[in-house]
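Extended Data, panel c. Modelled sequence:
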Amino acid sequence: VQLQASGGGLVQPGGSLRLSCAASGSFFSITVMGWYRQAPGKQRELVARISSGGSTNYADSVKGRFTISRDNGKNTVTLQMSSLKPEDTAVYYCNVDAFQSVGVRGYWGQGTLVTVSS
């Protein structure tokens, strides 16, 4: 499974960015899709994830500011980020669980840098 993420960049505090990730390859279905982030010197943490049925989970730090959505037909997941803060600066990673012939396996994208700075 290959994950292609896009949409990172530099944005001022209070601004917005949209991250997108597309999954391709050999699988029956994508179960959970999500975004994680890793700031310098910190561990990777969950930002948001969404099930194939549309159930969502968010980190407390992004609730009310970020929205995750997915297109099951296109195997894409989008993270709409608003009211961005400097502490949102991190490398953001797309993550999916793919249902394959060997069972469910997790995959990571290559990461996209989000910098929130004036």
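The mean pLDDT is 96. This feature is highlighted in the accompanying rendering.
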